[in-house]
Amino acid sequence: MSKRISLRSKKIGVVINYLSLLWFVALFYTGEHIIGWSTVLVAAILVSILIIIITFVTVHVNSGLWKLIHSKIEKLDEREIYVTHESLRYSYAIMSIILLLIIFVMALTSMGKDALGPILPAGLIYFAHTLPSSVIVWKEKDLLT
Amino acid sequence: MKSRKLYNRISLLREERGVSRKELAERIGVNFQTVGYLERGEYNPSLDLAFRISEVFGLPVEFIFSTKPMKPISEQLFDRAHEKGGI
Fold this sequence. Notes:
The complex is a heterodimer.
Chain A: H1 7-34, H2 39-61, H3 65-69, H4 78-108, H5 112-115, H6 119-139
Helix pairs in contact in A: 1-2, 1-6, 4-6
Chain B: E1 7-8, H1 10-16, H2 21-28, H3 32-39, H4 47-57, H5 61-64, E2 65-66, H6 73-83
Antiparallel strand pairs in B: 1-2
Helix pairs in contact in B: 2-3
């Protein structure tokens, strides 16, 4: 069932979600390649995972956006098709720029080999999946059910 | 190409006939929020959807949708009566 959440709260949720994701990847990278693992670091990673899960459920699942983005086109009406099409178009552009920037940074620095662990691709997969609904949160005034 | 703003009487007709957004949405086969978008003029319907709406209300498409701001029906009635010399 979908719940009403204010647009402002949703936007804040999206920002917190992605900052937590970035924080999680950075912490993992730090633990794996720079300072080694410690209890504090593991706790910080667990906290960031918890924040990611909570904001994901609140912003993407409870709002119905995850369902909308992942629905078959036959189940959507013409405005929903338009909205999802627009969000996917923006997401494609944003994702392309981010991936190219990552590749560019990797090519310029020596972190390329280290960064290609499982965490960065996993983070990017999550980001790619949630980006369309985040775009809708940003662009639409009153979409959620 | 940027589409023109379409004005409509969906909200007026819906309230006049005591139809909820949800009921209208079910009858025209869209999400109820799409009805809200249509009523506020924030989304222009396809020709097919415009015809479905006109069929539900039993009125011509051009009575429900217009590219120009629509006069209130009371004003239109007054103008018509005035033209006929009734008032």
